[in-house]
Amino acid sequence: MIERIQTVYLFLIAVLMVTYCFLPIWEKSDKKTNEKVILTAISLDYSKPSENKKTSSTTIYLVILAGVAAVNALYSIFLYKNRLLQIKFVLTNTFVICSVLAMSVFANMQGEKLFSPNEAGTYGIAFYLLPVAILFNFLARKAIKSDEDLVRSADRLR
Question: Which of 20, 72, 94, 111 has a CA 20 to 30 Å removed from the CA of 53?
Answer without folding.
Answer: 20
